[in-house]
Design brief:
88 residues; 67% helix; 0% strand
């Protein structure tokens, strides 16, 4: 099952871009560029949980899961923390 909740605006924009271009242009981004952006976007929210950043990047799945409650408390404890995290 796929949940598109919250993605409607991006999907609408993507469809409008596709329609306006007449199907011309690159269908996908350069994979190296896409991976670099993905890694940047992954580390950005992880930095909100700085005390566990090393484990978040290199830890085993169980270690990463153990970081979530403290990370959530840290984010929610900041002024507009939830909104800033969602934007990232």
């Amino acid at each position: 099952m796929v949940d598109y909740l919250g993605l409607a605006d991006q999907l609408r924009h993507a469809l409008a871009t596709y329609t306006e271009s007449g199907g011309k242009g690159d269908a996908v981004h350069d994979p190296k560029e896409a991976i670099a952006v993905m890694l940047e976007k992954h580390v950005s929210p992880a930095t909100c949980c700085t005390p566990g950043l090393g484990k978040w990047i290199t830890g085993k799945p169980a270690e990463k899961l153990a970081l979530l409650p403290a990370g959530q408390e840290r984010i929610l404890g900041q002024e507009d923390g939830k909104q800033r995290f969602v934007q990232v």
